[in-house]
Amino acid sequence: MSTETFDPKAQPATYDPNAVASASMTEAAISHIRKQLAKNPAMKGIRLGVKKSGCSGFKYDIEFVEQAHDGDQTIRVADDILLFIAADAAPYVRGTEIDFSKEGLNSTIKFNNPNAKDLCGCGESFSV
């Protein structure tokens, strides 16, 4: 048996909501987004945001866009796909992996968000 000592000075730095957001997409999500973008060549990528909604507090908001909005962070997830992170969403989606799954006739975009503390039963909203 070992004994560990708690040292408050050894804790990570305070969470910085202004730090650059990081997000990623699985190959399945990239393939799905690529197919959707091919239907409208003017669109250059997707914009990930959050809105206050749902039973848990926030819901994800994805839209296909031609360019970043003011303050958006841009992540190149593939040679031909850009992911824009809305400035006000960055603290909520930092580290999120976007996935896509298809089961039978149902398909869905999934968000694997390490910041989510609670998810609603339907999986449409989350809290941090």
Description:
The protein has helices at 27-38, 90-93; strands at 23-25, 45-53, 57-65, 73-78, 81-85, 96-103, 106-112, 118-119, 125-127. The strands form two sheets. It has a six-stranded mixed beta sheet. A three-stranded mixed beta sheet has the order 1-6-7. Helices cover 12% and strands 41% of the residues. The protein starts with 22 loop residues before the first strand and ends with a strand. The longest helix is centred in the N-terminal third of the chain and has 12 residues, at 27-38.
Number of strands: 9
Low-confidence stretches: 1-15
Strand order of the largest sheet: 4-5-2-3-9-8
Number of helices: 2
Secondary-structure content class? mainly beta
Q: What overall geometry do the principal axes of the alpha carbons give?
A: globular
For the biggest sheet, the summary is: 6 strands, mixed
Query: What is the CA-based Rg, rounded?
Result: 17 Å
Strand content: 35-45%
Helix content: 10-25%
What is the residue-mean pLDDT, rounded to a whole number? 79
Write down the secondary-structure element order: EHEEEEHEEEE
Instruction: Calculate the terminal CA-CA distance, rounded to whole Å.
Output: 35 Å
